[in-house]
Amino acid sequence: MTQTDAQTGIETDPTSSPEDLRERMIAELIESGVLSDPRIEAAFRAVPREVFAPAGTPAEMSYATDDALRTRFADDGKALSSLSAPTMHAGNLAQAQIEDGQRVLEIGSGGPNAAMLAHLVGPTGQVVSVDIDEGVTARTRTGLPQLGLGDRVEVVTADAAEPLGHGVFDRIMVTVSPWSLPETWVEQLAPDGILVVPFQVAPGLQRIIGFRKKDGRLVSESTVPGGFVPLQGAGLFNPATAELTGPSGKPVTFRFPGTKVPESFAVSDEVLATGAVEAWSGVIYKNRTIWLDLLTYLLIQPDACAMEADDATDRGSDMSFYPALVDGASFAALHRRPASETTLEVGAIGKGPDAARLTRRLADQIAHHGAHHRGTEPLFQWWPIGTERNHVAPSVTVLSRPHGTLTISWPVAGRD
What's the rounded Cα separation, in Å, for the pair 380 and 223? Predict the structure, then answer.
């Protein structure tokens, strides 16, 4: 007999043992394709996730394949710490390519990932797990000895953006989302080492990137979708925001990539209450497709921002969503409409005195990506301060951050 948890909505079965739940989770991960490495599968099987959950947490919540278990919250209700979803752990461990005997640094503790890392590095390897929150590290320190891993994992309470004094690591896995990559992370990574990090590429958008260290810079080898709680401490980034109220009476928030709202920004509650203008790109996607590359491409364009609306109709339609262009008192947001029973067309919807031009511009950007870059994997490179960059072509996006520069280049579809 199943019952539904009142807070999470997750169906639970009081008769299922943690072992049964763990096997079901592993089967789901294998079926989804995210878990294919036998070594990582064995690590999942060896780690009872419920050991690291807060007291009183139903075991089913620890094994919900696609759901993070939030363990600490800010005053405004936003999650500050969580046990990452098993599907995230599986994908990130695959990106990290952990080998026996390696030294691994985990930034953002929690317990299950540190325990699985300990199994992957074996008795000759070492894991250091660091978190800024004493409550988080205390729970990890308590759980690891119960699994016989207390001597293989060192748990440290510290701000990981500061030097740790623990030497160099073959792999660094970050389970919190930074806006920039602190110099200490690059310095602590061995030559040819791998850093896996859920990078905030733009406000409202994370890419979990597997970087390889080459000649002092970091070059992407893999990217997967996903989301983690933001990095706290010295590396915390709060994007500049403009808060408005839409016709529905609910909040509409514009989040910008800098620390200040652009002086030219003049969208108002009155603009949100005006009629909408549409433009279409001709780009077709299958229903329920993840458009991660398209969203990335749009959000790094000039004048782009994340437009969050509690009621999507405040942007003009319940089919609209967050990437947007802003110019003065006008905006254009991403839009979609059915193209067939199984497909949809992507376009733009906007409001304001210059909405027609902005929606056409956004629709043209969608069409350009569809014609020239769809199906390609963007190349991300991180250049720490003081690193000499190669000649950057005009087509490469250059994003300056506090500790260095992120460059993003897009291969042309159909070219070798």
Answer: 9
- Which pLDDT value is given to residue 395? 78
* 177 tagged catalytic: no
Q: What does the pLDDT average to over 79-100?
A: 83
**Domains of the chain from N-terminus onward:** 17-235 (3.40.50.150), 241-372 (no CATH)
Backbone φ and ψ of 320, nearest 5°: -95, 160
Residue with token string 């850093």: 195
- Cα angle value 369/373/374 (rounded, 5°): 85
Can you give the pTM of this predicted structure? Answer: 0.88
**Per the residue annotation, which of 62, 81, 82, 84 is the catalytic one?**
84
How far is it, in rounded angstroms, from Cα 94 to Cα 222?
Answer: 10
Give the Cα separation of 353 and 375 in Å (integer): 35
In this predicted structure, the answer to whether residue 177 has a pLDDT above a threshold of 60 is yes
Using a 10 angstrom Cβ sphere, with 0-12 exposed, 13-18 middle and 19 or more buried, the burial of residue 396 is: middle
Write out pLDDT tens, residues 262-312.
999 999 999 999 999 999 999 999 998 888 999 999 999 999 999 999 999
